[in-house]
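Standup, Tuesday
Yesterday: got the pipeline producing structure tokens again.
Today: sanity-check two examples.
Blockers: none.

Example 1:
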Amino acid sequence: MNDSAGKRSVLRRISPTQWVAIGLSILAVVFVVENRGKVSVEILLITVTSPMWLILLAMFIVGWIAGVLTTRRARK
């Protein structure tokens, strides 16, 4: 068995879902690197200064939690 055949067999074992996860992970890393600048956000009387990617991540998590809390579960 040569090296090229061994590499092909490893690549074939990766499912399409795993390829999507790898792609999204790469996009997330690029997003963080591109958005390292600090921003100030005012929430009522509190001002928070943080990298933009961290603020956006926090808002994503808040939205995800709100979605989980407001969706109805399917009946079994």
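Example 2:
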Amino acid sequence: MRKKHQSSKGLAKKYKLDDLLINQPYHKYLQALKELPELIGKSRNTLTNYRNILLDSKEMIPYEVGIIIERYFGIEPGTLSNI
């Protein structure tokens, strides 16, 4: 019997990455989904995984990647995290 995975909808996220992307105009959202993986040197799937890291998870976005994402969105250093 397979375990059912708990949906992450409505659960607190560790990083504001998902909110930053969702709040972009549609064309900028698509542009970010294309540019960010190239900038951080990761796949689009990894970026999606970063978007879905929950607050109580031990997973983290690497420091260098977080800096690149903060600069991309023009937010203050250290403000990507929700903790």
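Quick observation on example 2: Residues 17-73 form one domain. Helices lie at 17-22, 26-40, 44-51, 63-73.
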